[in-house]
Amino acid sequence: MKLRRSGRLVDMTHYLLAHPHTLVSLTYFADRYQSAKSSISEDLTIIKQTFEEQGTGSLLTVPGAAGGVKYIPGIKEKEAKDTIKELCALIAKPERVLPGGYLYLTDILGSPHLVSKIGRLFAAVFANRKIDVVMTVATKGIPLAYAAARELNVPVVIVRKDSKVTEGSTVSINYVSGSSKRIQTMLLAKRSLEVGSNVLIIDDFMKAGGTINGMISLLEEFDAKVAGIGVLVETEGVEERLVDEYISLVKLTEVDIREKQIDLTEGNYFDFLEIEKKEG
Amino acid sequence: MKLRRSGRLVDMTHYLLAHPHTLVSLTYFADRYQSAKSSISEDLTIIKQTFEEQGTGSLLTVPGAAGGVKYIPGIKEKEAKDTIKELCALIAKPERVLPGGYLYLTDILGSPHLVSKIGRLFAAVFANRKIDVVMTVATKGIPLAYAAARELNVPVVIVRKDSKVTEGSTVSINYVSGSSKRIQTMLLAKRSLEVGSNVLIIDDFMKAGGTINGMISLLEEFDAKVAGIGVLVETEGVEERLVDEYISLVKLTEVDIREKQIDLTEGNYFDFLEIEKKEG
Questions:
Q1: Are residues B171 and B245 located together in one domain of the fold?
Q2: Are residues B53 and B176 in the same domain?
Q3: Same domain, B173 and B55
Q4: Quick check: is B233 in a domain?
Q5: Same domain, residue pair B210 and B234
Q6: pLDDT in tens, A61-72
Q7: Residue B59: CB partners within 8 Å, gap ≥ 6?
Q8: Mutate which: A13, A58, A71, vs B, most B CBs within 10 A
Q9: Quick one: B221 and B182 in the same domain?
Q10: Would A276 be classed as within a structural domain?
Q11: pLDDT recorded at residue B279
């Protein structure tokens, strides 16, 4: 369909946002809008400038015959700070304290809007790593894993704690939960992960890191590599952390069960975020 | 930040796509871009026209002081047909047949790109119903539920088959699985669903409908109403369907375990989709 510049800008923006981390050739857009490549180039310059000014992300231009343009979702430091501050305020509500000092996060993880924001934070901080797949463990980490994977344009694999007939044959391992020291099992469908994959592990909560450590052991069974670890909440004051490098959005410093007081600070996210030079 | 028309079109498109089913006032945009409301109005006319021509969806204009504009994700009949055809072709692959005649769908449900497309199909067909929340049951339906909920701008609640301490107190029911006739339990966190909510149920697979029927019983415990039911795959030839009205994308007509032959057709989706008159 022939479109004028204004229409092209609207539709190209939509197309690029729906296809992050995907190389799109100029020819594709030229055919899509029945326009000259030179016009498409000018459109892309406008989009690139707006995306960078507004902190939407960047447009990488790959030159040459096999080239094109690639949208890399990003985030401005200020927006990241604001989102993490918002998450801290939400999580700190006293009514979240459950018996045993656990926190009720179901509503936060149930909000697609918040979940998308968290996914963008992870996608931005891991944008430059080689990632083939995002892995998480059922159930709470699933929405976060999908939100990050969508922006990184990679599939999701879900580790389970019970076997399901619809998964086909599985590989299972036993692991020791870091805090309760109990032996547990986790398993992954054999055909869900290719040998040698670079895997980003995403989860909602990390205490000692036993579950994440279990996922790392499971990856070894597939000769797969850990490309990164991202968690929404980590807890401070863990005696012996089982996981080395990880990125957390929020750090839980104290839960006072009696007073229903929850103390949180920013996680280590900003130690890893490459800060955009151009703060518009 | 002051932006010219071209930049405004790019950023407004991004903003509207990220905030579906949300009323945005013209004042918000006028302030965001330091532009006159009349210019914003003209921008919105261009975006509306492009969205409608390309089948992205529609922009509803709400007049008056409390008015504004609302982006309603939609889909063109042709795009919906193509997506469902693509799903049928993917699901029909012989290597999906598992022992017992089950189908391996984990890779399809693990693709954020496919899952987003499925979510858009559901969001388009349920766009005009009053929906407060999307409900699904762990684990496989979760990504589909989030993909639909994101486009409908409502939260997700997840029914579980086992109790978790991080859910707080729960309401549980027993139900009879339609095909295996076994009694099972499902439960939902008490504070995750408000009384009187209008609930869209989304799941990946429906045979006799026992699981979905269980969710309907659970809703009764919360005095909540079923606003709609959407499934990715339904199976044909079920003697006694436990669920009345539902929308399916794909219908499984036969699985020949020995020959590894899977037969599929379009589900009843197009009986429900309001077809856009303007096919660009």
A1: yes
A2: no
A3: no
A4: yes
A5: yes
A6: 999 888 899 999
A7: B16, B44, B47, B48, B51, B69, B70, B71, B72
A8: A13
A9: yes
A10: no
A11: 39
CATH of the domain at B258: 3.40.50.2020
- Crossing angle for the helix pair B77-91 and B112-125, to the nearest 10 degrees: 130
Give the pLDDT of residue B210. Answer: 92
Only one residue has tokens 């996608």, namely A123
- Nearest residue of chain B to residue A120 (CA atoms): B18
Put simply, the answer to whether B6 touches A7 (Cβ < 8 Å) is no
Looking at the partner chain, which of A1, A115, A140 has a beta carbon nearest the beta carbon of B280?
A1
Which of A42, A73, A104 finishes a domain? A73
Residue A180 predicted with pLDDT over 80: no
Query: Total domain count for chain B?
Result: 2
Asked if B143 and A165 come within 8 Å (Cβ–Cβ), the reply is no
Q: What is the pLDDT of residues B116-157, one digit of tens each?
A: 999 999 999 999 999 999 999 999 999 999 999 999 999 999
Q: What integer pLDDT is reported at residue B280 of this predicted model?
A: 34
Within-domain flag for A23:
yes
Q: Which chain A residues contact residue B50 at CB under 8 A?
A: 3, 6-7, 10-11
Nearest CB among B56, B115, B139 relative to A158 is that of B139
Let me know: does A112 contact A118? Beta carbons within 8 Å. no
**Segment A9-51, tens digit of pLDDT:** 999 999 999 999 999 999 999 999 999 999 999 999 999 999 9
CATH number (domain holding residue A25): 1.10.10.10
Residue of A nearest to B165 (CA): A102
Same domain, A96 and A197: yes
Domain boundary pick from A57, A73, A89: A73
Q: Do B112 and A149 touch (CB under 8 A)?
A: yes
Range of the domain at A60: 5-73
Q: Give A6 to chain B, closest Cα distance, Å.
A: 7
Q: What SS3 state is found at A202? A: strand
- Taking the CA of residue B18 and the nearest CA in chain A, the distance in Å comes to 8
Tell whether A198 and A118 lie within a shared domain: yes
Q: Which of B118, B117, B12, B113 is nearest to B71 (CA)?
A: B12
CA atoms in the 13 A half-sphere facing the CB of A14: 21
Band of pLDDT at residue A279, cut at 50, 70 and 90: very low
Q: Are residues A154 and A113 in the same domain?
A: yes
Residues of B in contact with A157 (CB under 8 A): 106, 110
Q: Which amino acid is at B180?
A: S
Q: Can you tell me the ipTM of this complex? A: 0.95
Q: Do A156 and B3 touch (CB under 8 A)?
A: no
Instruction: State yes or no: pLDDT of A277 exceeds 70.
Output: no
Looking at the DSSP assignment, which residues form a beta bridge with residue B186?
Answer: B173
pTM for the whole thing? Answer: 0.95
Q: How many Cβ atoms sit within 10 Å of the Cβ of residue B164?
A: 15
Put simply, the answer to whether B166 touches A49 (Cβ < 8 Å) is no
Helical packing angle, A142-152 and B142-152, nearest 10°:
70
Query: A5: which chain B residues are within 8 Å (Cβ-Cβ)?
Result: 6
What pLDDT score was predicted for residue A275? 54
What angle in degrees, to the nearest 10, is found between the helix axes of B5-18 and B26-33?
Answer: 130
- Stretch B208-217: mean pLDDT, rounded? 94
Does any domain span residue A278? no
Q: Write down the pLDDT at residue B275.
A: 55
